[in-house]
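User: Okay, second chain of the day. Same drill as before: sequence in, structure tokens out.
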Amino acid sequence: MTKCLMIQGTASNAGKSLIVAALCRIYTKRGYKVAPFKSQNMSLNSYTTKENKEIAIAQVLQAKAANIDPTVDMNPILLKPKGESCSQVIIQGEAVGNKDFFRKYDKTKATQKDIDNNLMDDEDYRIMAKEAVIDSLNNLKKDYDMIIMEGAGSPAEINLREGDLANMGAAEIADANVLLVGDIDKGGVFASIAGTFLLLDDADRSRFKGVIINKFRGKQELLCSGIERLEEIIEVPVLGIVPYAENLQLPEEDSASLKEHNWKKEFDENEKHIIIGVLKLPKIANFTDIDPFDAEDDVEIRMIELYDDKEKLKDIDALILPGTRNSTEDMKELEESGMANRIRKLHNNKKIPIIGICGGYQILGNRIYDKNHKESQLDEIEGLGILDIESEFIREEKIVKQSLATFELGLNDESDQIHEIFSKINGEEVAGYELHEGTTNLLSAKPLFKIKEGMGNNNEGIYDGAYQNNVFGTYFHGIFNNYNLRRELLNHIRKNKGLEIKTSEDPYETSVENSLEKLANIVEEALDMDYIDKLIFED
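Assistant: Same drill. Structure tokens below.
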């Protein structure tokens, strides 16, 4: 019989995802078939599985920790915020509608606006979501010895307990014991843990079998008296104090964790290195696309806010416009903030590589059309105009695919900087995944990739992306995970800056694996694993 253990937190970003990843790796190394599971996730960082279904990126990392391929059953409900309290609802990998979680909605009282917005009825959503959670759990139980579950937010959100599927509702369905994680780095960890227990009813409280204090810096002896008092109050043991794990190079789950991520590396004042500027769009999505650069020891990632001083653009060696949940509204704010004109000047004067991914790719172009208001109430908006393309939202269904293509650089484009950068790998394969509703038509810009699997720019499914002079864009997420592509881009910059050209193995793949091993070792050493073993195998 498959065993289930659930990790919940006192708040979002308490470290649940990484504790789950660590436990997946620990028990996998012991010879068990382990799967991660998060019934409901709210995140703009998502991924396309081999089934061509969409799940949150956190479960992809957890699956990697368990040495298995991610599947849609590991995250049956994904909510992607769209703004104005509304989220796109993705059930078992497919978009089924939108849900406003800040109002009660009965489809029998629908307005025309509700119908146009494809708003889901409360009862329909609850039924569909619960069926998906039960079905996905049962699917995983057929193939795995153990399921390590992750909660969402906090179980103490008692206003949401009725109909809950993210925390105690999921634990109840799985009949799982629960461990509670508290983040001491934020302060108030004892109060947040005790308060969580106080707000739970007796049935829910009975599932909690232990507490983990996470992200600790300092001497553990200073916590002893507090832990003793806490255990008296909550009547369950503290199973360990997990130290703050420095220098882990692992994907962040959502924008909440992005705020706390430290991208800065220590470089000597006169030490030459590469600076990759990343535009922090208001509705930034799939920003894990930039993670591979963080593994390069001579690369600094600089996050650039829209209202940042223009000096932040002054010394960058490349600029990336990442994915966004709403390219039209983000383009509007780019103009209003003055950042759009600063990027145009940067393009005209400095000639550094400027790169757009998915929504960022659309923003590079001349114009974005949204006549059916799929993203916003704007019919159309001018883009940056630095790549001769136009994009529009006319697809009836979202493209969700794992994709494969080859570089398709023209033979007579030697004057283009992008051709110069990638000419050595022209014709080579690149892999990625697509998550987009837009289509893009190329004017004088040239196609970047020829599609082997996937959809790319438009419904023809022949080409993806475009390049022109020093600018290129693509719908492929995960593009920089292709080491040859990333290496050639960085080596171009290294050559121009007089830095050493690199040809070694991919440091990113090594860093992720090493980080997972490091994380698992830290957690295994910190926690009372004998107690957790008994919870899983004997309870």
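Residues 335 and 341 are 7 Å apart (CA to CA).

User: Thanks, on to the next one.
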